[in-house]
Amino acid sequence: MNLSRRDALVLAMGGVAASFLPQAALADAAADAIAAFTGGAATATDGIKLDAPEIAENGNGVPVGVDAPGAVSIAIFATGNPTPGVATFNFGPAAGSQFASTRIRLSKTQDVVAIAKMADGSFKQAQATVKVTIGGCGG
Amino acid sequence: MISRREFIQASLAASTILGASGLSRWSRAMAQQSLTQDQLLEFDTFGNVTLIHITDIHAQAKPIYFREPEINLGVGDALGQPPHVVGKDFLKMFNIEPNTPEAYALTYDNFSDLAKAYGKMGGMDRVATVVKSIKADRPDALVLDGGDTWHGSMTSLLTKGQDMVNIMNQLGTDAMTSHWEWTFGQDRVKEIVEGLPFPFLGANIFDVEWDEPAFEPYKIFERGGVRVAVIGQAFPYMPIANPKWMFPDFSFGIREERMQEVVDEVRAEGVDLVVCLSHNGFDVDKKMVSRVKGIDVILTGHTHDACPEPILVGDTILIASGSNGKFVSRVDLDVRDGQMMGFRHKLIPIFSDVITPDADMAALIDNERAPYKEQLEEVVGQTEDLLYRRGNFNGTWDDLICEAILSERDAEIAMSPGVRWGTTLLPGDNITREDIHNATSMTYGACYRTEMTGETIHTILEDVADNIFNTDPYYQQGGDMVRIGGMGYHIDVSKPIGERISNMTLLKDGSEIDPARSYVVAGWASVNEGTEGPQIWDVIENHVKKIGTVKLQPNTSVVVTGV
C-alpha cells in the first residue's frame, strides 16, 4: 500500500499528538523555561533580530538566526515543543559579534522566542510564528 | 513642487481614464464585429523605459479558453480588494460593461456564450506579434517572464520543458523567475539554465547546505539612458507546495530582509529604477512591497490574477498580468534623475482571432508539436458541460477528475489538488488527450490509493484551508482549496486553523465522517517520493472513454460561510 503524504502527515500527526497534552502544561513549560533564563525580568523588543521562515520547509530542521549586538547570552525557545528550551549561546568579551544561528526541530506550528541577556543585566526579546504544514497544493 | 507620489497618483488617474475610454470604444467595435489588432495595441509611447510582462503561461503555446474565478475570497485586509473581486463586482470596480470583450477576458459571467462570440485567447504566436509591435515603438523594451512557463501541457511534459524554452528564447526574453520549472528536477533546471541566453533570477533561492544565494539575484540593464535593476523572486514555498525531493539542494522562502538587502545593494550601485519580477502571489507581493522600501515596480505572478489597472502600494506600482498567455502587460515609465516620475500601463488582452499570429513563432510552435501531433489531438470523448477549474472550491474539471478517480480506483473519497492552472472547455467541445493534460500535466501525476482516518482527512482540509485563508498573506501559499469527491463539508473561512472545517459527510450514504474510521482515499499530485499508481491523465482518459460524453451533476457538497 502506498502511504501518500506520509512524511508530511507524520509531522501533522505529531502536532495532533502534542495537542493531547494539556495546553496549560505546554504554555507553563515555555513560560517556566523563559522565566528560568530571565529570572522573571521584563524584556525590551528593540535591538534584537530573529530570523526564521514563515513556513518551515522541513519541520525537522528549521533554520533560525538571532542577532543581538551587545548580548552576553542568547537563548532560543520553541514554545510549542514538549521541551521548549532549544539552545543557549554565551558570548565572551572577545566575541566579534553576538549572532547565533542553528537548526531546530518544531513539532507543530508555534512561536519561536529568542531572548538576549545584555551586559547590563537587562533582557531583549523577539518572536516569530513558524508554520509547520502539510502543503502540497501550489498554484 | 510636485512630489514623486503625486506624479505617480496622477499617472494612475490618467491610466484609469485611458482604460475607461478604451473600453467603451472596444465594446462598440465588437458589436460591429470590427475589433482590430491596432485597437488592442493602441498606446501612446511614454517616458523612456518600457517593460513587457507575461507570467504563468503554463506552457500554453496555442490559444485556449480560460474562465476566470467565480469565487476568489479575500480574508483580513484583502477582503473586497483586488484580486478578490469577481464577476459583476469586478466589472463595476473597473468600469467595464457586461458582455464586452473585456468582460469575457476578465470575468466568469456568461462565459460559454461570450467564449463562442469572442473566441480563444492567448497563443505564443499572437504574443510574439504583440511583443514585436511594442518593440517597433520602443526597440529596447524589456521582456520579463514571471515563471510557471515550462510546465502545464502535454508537449512541455514530453519535452521536459524544452518546447517552452525554445519559444521563450525566440520571443526575446530578457529575464525570468521560476516555480513549476523546478518540478522537472534540479538537474534539468540547471541543464536548461546553463543554455539560457538570459538570467534565471531568484534572490530568494538559497543553497540548502550552506544557506547561501544559489542563483543570480538581479540583473542591471541599460535602457533609454537609464539603468534598470530587475530583481527576481521565485515562488517562496517550493519545497512545501511541490515535491522537495525533486530539488533537495535548494531552499526558498519569502526572505523579506534578503529582498531589502538586494534592493539596497542595487540602489547603492546607482540604478535609476528597481523592478521586482516576482512569483510570490498577489497578496504576498502587496505585503512585501509595503515593508521592503525602494521597489518602483513589482510585476506579480503565481496567483493568476489579471488587473486592468496597476495597484498603488505606497510608492510602488503592482502589475498583475493574468495567466495562460491571455494577457501581456505593457508598462511605459518616465524615469528621471534616479526616480520613477510617472507611468502609463495597458493590460493587453490577447484575442486570438483578432491578433495576427507571428509567422516565425507559429512555425516554431508547429514544429515543436509535430512529433506528438497525433497523440495530442486524439479525441477521447465529448463534454456537454463547461469544464473549468479556477476558483477557491470545486470546479467542474475537478468534479470530472474526482468522478474518474472514484470510479477507476474504487475509492470512497477522491482528492484533487487545488492548483490554479488548467484550461477550460466549452459545452459541446471534444475532449482531446491534450485537453486532459492541460488540466493534469505534471512530473508527479501518479494516482495513489490509500487509507486515511477521518481525523487525517480533517487535518488535511484544515491545513490546506489555512494556506488560503490565513489572514496574514505571508502564510498563504497561493493555491485553491483541495477538491474533494465523494465527501461534502462546511467551511467557515473567517475562523482560525482547526476550526474552519465541519460537517464532513460521506456522500454515498449521508453518514458523518468518523474521525476514527479508515476510508479508502485516492488522489494525485502527492509530494511524497515513491508514490505509486497509474498516471492521472490515463485514469481520466479511461473514464471518459467509458462514459463517452461528460455530463455532470451540479456540485453542492461544499458549504462556505464566514464570507
Quickly describe the structure.
The complex is a heterodimer of chains A (about 140) and B (about 575). Chain A is about 20% helix and about 35% strand.
Largest interface: A-B, 30 and 54 residues
Written as H for each helix and E for each strand, in order along the chain, the element string of chain A is HHEEEEEEEE
Give the domain tally of chain B.
2
Strand order of the largest sheet of chain A: 1-8-7-4-5
How far apart are the termini of chain B?
45 Å
Low-confidence stretches of chain B: 17-22
Calculate Rg of chain A over CA atoms: 16 Å
Specify the structural class of chain B: alpha/beta
Architecture (CATH level 2) name of the largest domain in chain B = 4-Layer Sandwich
CATH topology (level 3) name of the largest domain in chain B: Purple Acid Phosphatase, chain A, domain 2
Query: Mean pLDDT score of chain B, rounded?
Result: 94
Low-confidence stretches of chain A: 1-23
Number of helices of chain A: 2
Distance between the termini of chain A: 28 Å
Q: What is the CATH architecture annotation of chain A?
A: Sandwich
Radius of gyration of chain B: 23 Å
Number of strands of chain B: 23
Helix fraction of chain A, binned, reads 10-25%
Helix content of chain B: 25-40%
What's the CATH H-level homologous superfamily of the largest domain in chain B? Answer: Metallo-dependent phosphatases
Query: Largest sheet of chain B, if any?
Result: 6 strands, mixed
Model description:
- Chain B: Keywords: Hydrolase, Nucleotide-binding.
- Chain B: Residues 394-533 form the 5'-Nucleotidase C-terminal domain.
- Chain B: One of its GO terms (molecular function) is hydrolase activity.
- Chain B: This is Thiosulfohydrolase SoxB.
- Chain B: It holds the Pfam family 5_nucleotid_C.
- The complex is a heterodimer of chains A (139) and B (563).
- Chain A has 139 residues and is of the alpha+beta class.
- Chain A has one domain (6-130): Immunoglobulin-like.
- Helix content of chain A is 21%, strand content 35%.
- Chain A contains two helices and eight strands; from the N terminus they run H-H-E-E-E-E-E-E-E-E.
- Chain A has helices at 6-18, 23-38, and strands at 43-44, 49-51, 62-67, 71-78, 85-90, 99-104, 110-118, 123-130.
- In chain A, strands 1-8-7-4-5 form a five-stranded mixed β-sheet, with helices on one face.
- The radius of gyration of chain A is 16 Å and the shape is globular.
- Mean pLDDT of chain A is 82; it is low at 1-23.
- With 563 residues, chain B is α/β, with parallel strands linked by helices.
- Chain B has two domains: 4-367, Metallo-dependent phosphatases (Purple Acid Phosphatase, chain A, domain 2); 378-561, 5'-nucleotidase,  domain 2, CATH 3.90.780.10.
- A six-stranded mixed β-sheet of chain B has the order 5-6-8-9-11-10, with helices on one face.
- In chain B, a hairpin with a 2-residue loop joins strand 10 (311-313) and strand 11 (316-320).
- The two termini of chain B are 45 Å apart.
- The A-B interface holds A 1-9, 12-13, 16, 51, 53-58, 63, 109, 129, 131, 133-139 and B 179-180, 211, 235, 237-242, 244, 251-254, 257, 281, 302-304, 417-421, 448-451, 455-456, 459-460, 463-464, 466-467, 474-475, 477-480, 482, 497, 523, 525-528, 530-533.
